[in-house]
Amino acid sequence: MIIIKNENEIVKMRNAGRVAAAALEAAKKCVEQGTPGILTTADVDRAVAREIRKWGAAATFLNYNGFPASACVSVNEEVIHGIPGRRVLNDGDLVSVDVGATLDGFVGDCAATFFIGTPKENAVRLAQVTRESFYAALSYARVGYRLSDISHAVQEYAESRGYGVIRDFVGHGVGRRLHEEPEVPNFGEPDRGPRLRPGMTIAVEPMISEGTWKVRILGNGWTVVTEDGKLAAHYENTILITSGDPVLLTRNEQDI
Questions:
Q1: Where are any strands of DSSP class E within 52-146?
Q2: CATH 3.90.230.10 fits 7-250, yes or no
Q3: Residue 253 predicted with pLDDT over 80
Q4: Confidence band (pLDDT; 50, 70, 90) for 252?
C-alpha cells in the first residue's frame, strides 16, 4: 500500500530531509577536503554520524537489517552499500555516499557521488550523467504521470549517453520507514504502474555504471559491485509529489 502523507507528516518529512541533506553535505566536505592516501571510508562515516547527531536525529542505516555504519560509502566499482572501514581513499577515487536520517519518526534519504583529489574525466562524466538522469526523471514527478514514467526517463537519459542502468536495486517509497511501497526502478516502459498523487514521498536514486548493468554482492553480504569492475555512481533525493512542482525534501547545497 502506498502511504499518502498528510500536512503534519509532510512537515516532519521536510525536517528529516534537511538533516539527511546536511549529513550528505558533511560527507561531501570530508571527501573533497580530505587528503588522498590518508582519509578512510570510516572517516567519512564519522563525519556523517556527527552531523546527524548534531540535529538530534538518528542515523537510519545504523543497524538497519544489521548494517554496521551510519552511511554507505561506496568506492569506484562499488555501486551501493559499501561498508565504511579502514579502506584508504586514493587520489581520484570516486566515492558514492548514501545517508539516511530519522527525526521525529520520519526518514530522509539521499545520496551523491564525490571525488577525492583530482578525478579522471571519465569518472566526472559518469557522476554528471547520473545526477542529470535524476533531474530528467524529476520532470515526470508530477500528478498525472505514472510511476514508470520516472523510471523510463532515468533509463532513456543514461543509456542514450552510453551508460548502464543498474536493475537489481531500485528506489522506493519513504516515510515512517526507510523502505515503503512503491518500488521505483530506474528502468522500464513508460505509462505503467500507479498514477502519482499529492502526498506521495519517494526516493528516486539512479545507480549508473560505465559498463554492464549486471552486479554481484561481495562476501560481506552487503557491498554491491559492478560485475565487470567498471566505475559506478549513485545519486538520490527524497521527492514529495504535490499538486504542482515536485519538492526535493533532501535538496543539497550542490543543487542550489
A1: 58-59, 71-75, 78-80, 94-103, 106-115
A2: yes
A3: no
A4: low
